[in-house]
């Protein structure tokens, strides 16, 4: 069975860098499911859909064509053929994404697309519900955490170009997003019973990648 590595955890835990690094080290594909939720959110905002109205959001989930490229060296995300890799990282999208991703119809649509991309495997998939819902049969499941402070620092660095995004503001917005993502009814952020927890607060990126590669090798 080709390998599927599920990488779940809260925002700022270092999932993206670690997942891409693991995929490159092992010659696997890479899928950022958070980018897909962001792309859906960007499209809803762009089309004037009130993102706090679950019914309004649910009614439109099949309209955008969301495509995620799975090369870890150059992951891509497009909506209706247009590159949205920049716009999906704005604070506007970041602060609306939890509402959109709590809508069951959004999740059903994106999980369907994610399973198509995962196919028979050979891929590292990062998100919130990969080990629990999207790929419960993944051979390797990792739950990556880090202290709230370390996560806010990393996020603020990602948002350095945005003048409103101080560490304090980022920390508050992140705490809100984590609370929404962990308490929503539909597939909340959760550690799978068989996931290996890695705390990256004190670990460098290379050490996290090495730890996951070791787990993958044990499954060969
Ligand atoms: O990983 P990220 O911060 O780019 O994810 C953005 C949002 O998408 C996150 O706040 C919750 C949602 N998400 C989700 O609900 N399920 C996933 N598998 C991935 C992301």
Task: Write a structural description.
About 40% of the residues are buried. The protein is an alpha/beta fold and about 220 residues long. It is about 45% helix and about 15% strand. The strands form two sheets. It has a five-stranded parallel sheet, sandwiched between helices. It has helices at about 15-25, 35-45, 55-60, 90-100, 105-120, 130-135, 150-160, 165-185, 205-220; strands at about 5-10, 30, 65-70, 75-80, 80-85, 125, 140-145, 195-200. It is built from nine helices and eight strands. The protein is globular. α2 (about 35-45) crosses α4 (about 90-100). β3 (about 65-70) and β4 form a beta hairpin. The chain has a single domain, classed as P-loop containing nucleotide triphosphate hydrolases (Rossmann fold, 3-Layer(aba) Sandwich), CATH 3.40.50.
Total of DSSP H or I helical runs spanning 4+ residues: 9
Helix content: 40-55%
In sequence order, what are the helices and strands, one letter per element? EHEHHEEEHHEHEHHEH
The CATH topology label is Rossmann fold
CATH superfamily: P-loop containing nucleotide triphosphate hydrolases
In what range is the share of β-strand residues? 15-25%
CATH C-level category: Alpha Beta
Q: Provide the structure class.
A: alpha/beta
**Tally of strands:** 8
**Tell me, what's the shape?**
globular
Q: Can you tell me the residue ranges where pLDDT is under 50 for at least 5 consecutive residues?
A: none
InterPro entries: Cytidylate_kin (IPR003136), Cytidylate_kinase_dom (IPR011994), P-loop_NTPase (IPR027417)
Biased composition (Basic and acidic residues): 173-184
Subcellular location: Cytoplasm
Pfam family, one: Cytidylate_kin
